Amino acid sequence: xxxxxSIREPAxxxxxxxxxxxxxxxxxxxxxQLNRLGAGAVYLSPILAAxxxxxxxxxxxxxxRVSPALGGDTAREALAVKAHGLGMGVVADIVPNHxxxxxxxxxxxxxxxxxxxxxxxxxxxxxxxxxxGPLLIPVLADDxxxxxxxxxxxxxxxxxxxxxxxxxxxxxxxxxxxETADTVHRRQHYRLVSWRRGDSELTYRRFFDVSxxxxxxxxxxxxxxxxxxxxxxxxxxxxxxGLRVDHVDGLTDPGxxxxxxxxxxxxxxxxxxxxAPDEALPASWPVDGTTGYDALREVCGxxxxxxxxxxxxxxxxxxxVETDTDAVDTRARRxxxxxxxxxxxxxxxxxxxxxPPENTPRPSGMAVRQREDAVTELLCSFDVYRSYLPEGEDAxxxxxxxxxxxxxxxxxxxxxxxxxxxxxxxxxxxxRIQQTSGMVTAMGTENTAFYRGTRFTALNExxxxxxxxxxxxxxxxxxxxxREATAPRTMTTLSTHDTKRSEDVRAxxxxxxxxxxxxxxxxxxxxxxxxxxxxxxxxxxxxxLVGAWPISTERLTxxxxxxxxxxxxGTSWTDPDPGFEEHVRAWPDRVLGDVALRGEVAALVDRxxxxxxxxxxxxxxxxxxxxxxxxxxxxTELWDLSLVDPDNRRxxxxxxxxxxxxxxxxGWRPPVDATGAAKLHLVRACLHARRDLRPTGYLPxxxxxxxxxxxxxxxRTSAWGRFPDLAAVATRLPLTLADTGGWRDTVxxxxxxxxxxxxxLTGRAVAPVRSDGFTAAxxxxxLDHYPVAVLVRE
Length: 794
Description:
Layout: E1 13-16, H1 24-29, H2 31-37, E2 41-44, E3 48-50, E4 60-66, H3 72-85, E5 89-94, E6 98-100, H4 108-116, E7 135-140, H5 148-151, E8 155-157, E9 160-163, E10 166-168, H6 181-185, E11 190-194, H7 198-201, E12 206-207, E13 210-215, H8 221-236, E14 242-245, H9 254-264, E15 268-271, E16 289-290, H10 293-301, H11 309-319, H12 325-340, H13 342-350, H14 364-379, H15 393-406, H16 411-423, H17 428-446, H18 473-486, E17 491-492, H19 503-512, H20 516-529, H21 535-548, H22 553-567, H23 578-593, H24 595-625, E18 629-633, H25 654-665, H26 677-693, E19 696-701, E20 711-717, E21 726-731, H27 734-739, E22 747-749, E23 757-759, E24 769-771, E25 774-778, H28 779-782, E26 788-793
Parallel strand pairs: 1-2, 1-18, 2-5, 5-14, 7-11, 14-15, 15-16, 17-18
Antiparallel strand pairs: 3-4, 6-13, 8-9, 9-10, 12-13, 19-20, 20-21, 21-26, 22-25, 23-26, 24-25
């Protein structure tokens, strides 16, 4: 047992994606390497028992035990003890809002509910409408017959109802000798139905539109206790220092849940919460911050050239890709609410009595449809993921007015909903509308609109806004200073298991904005020779090819098929178009098999590859040394050109990283080249500086001279220092910088104080000059070896 006292705030975290092939023992074996790299804490993907064969852990089936496939509790404890022995914290990712029910036999809680219905001891654990009749389980194959033919495939096997390889329990006394499976099926507390009925008729709340993931009612104290007992046991043993709470907006009462959680857990807590650019976490939430998507947008945005916007916009318009991001987003949200989440809309509308205008009777059917339309429009009208009444009343009010402005014909019903919700902000209609608006936004915006509005895909990221093309340095500094003042312990990130494309792909795409005219001209030529069958996918395809180059046909094909299905323009998950998908499958081979075309793509990549590396290093320096607790996603200490999951969950080559780390530890200062060793060198320097100095405060540094706009820098003060004694310097827009003559006599004034500034990347002391009364570093000298600097006052 560990006697370790919980760490309130790690210096940094290193995210590991566990799976059966890389379990807790494997993670423990890499702790020495991560400690040498400088990581403050190991941050584990979910480790509770998950669905058989799970590759990510978010499909929990039993929250009372550690996954045996990952090594079980013995391996978990051994990892925690080793981490604490190295001085590292342990942070766990938890999933309070849903459980996997795809295989009922694997989930003891769900099995019991299916067996006993509303009399089950676990009935209150799930958000089930028992009054609507038998629980609908949408699993049957449907060839246009509503699943009727599939019912003939039901059998009784080993005392359970069987459908192919799945087993479903039988209620006591419902199976007699010689009875048919169909007869027994009709006696159960559930009904197996066509998979197509899930979106419109489901009687249990899901995670988004995933019928295999059933929502959990952790707002109930007993359910909270049962689902968190194991996690809190680890904390009581002193073996858990922090928690990352998955998708907090999916909870009925996020604030109430977090207050209950932090009353029982005194460690570091961050929540996966996607904030709009000017949105703040509710002040009443007792947490340290978010998982850092907001910082991702700001850090990446400062390396994007605003001058490239017009050319990329013109290409999108010419190719038929819509550039009105609000219109794209609204249309996608309406489709999500009216289609994929229609079951939730119906359930909300049923809680709201019809409100016809005085002296204007309406047929009951029309009243129901209009009420559902009003709910749909309201759910699509939030400018944030959700409101938190009564605290988030402004966001709620804006959504109601926006919906009424868009649909004046629904205004009467919308204002009736508004009155009902304001009268009882804790009532079921209020809770369900707020909870569902986050689902609509996630599925409409991230999962659909981000694959349709592909003008510049580096912007289409979790927490991003495709309408905001770049982030000026002044805004970057303002937001960083605000983060230090209001949420200094929040997590920050550049890559996660949820990002659409890695930080290094986005960094290379940012370099394209500096040569936007040449890139768009190339895309026009390439499209004439080898187009994808839908305009938005076509632009996405060429940007992905350049951004992730070199990429195998297998990886590119898998990504494009997923993107096309998410966009739901030429094909979709539920209504696939085989001809369209075959065209997509053939595209990578056609492009890479065309020698001339492949050569043109490779030549363009050569033009921006170095600038992409520069941007990657700049992003990393600002991220790792800036305000907040930086998270490093597994493997990204080297160049990582991964795309959306599961591509970004590929195995990490740990041995190569360990070998390069050893060389850097022996004093090697690697060049900036394709090995990515320069990035590892930077990551190590930043993490060690952060761990050693525990920086606080934030002071923007402003260069002076002809290339001043190409430097972004800040200084911070060590926890025990009196003067700023740590500084990060990064190069932005490196192609333009080179074209305009380089740094020339541009200098960076440094904070005054005793001691000598030394760059931990090169080992050289800064040779300052005097500039307008300030001590300043000539950037041509400071950044002659690396496009970044990590300055420490020795």
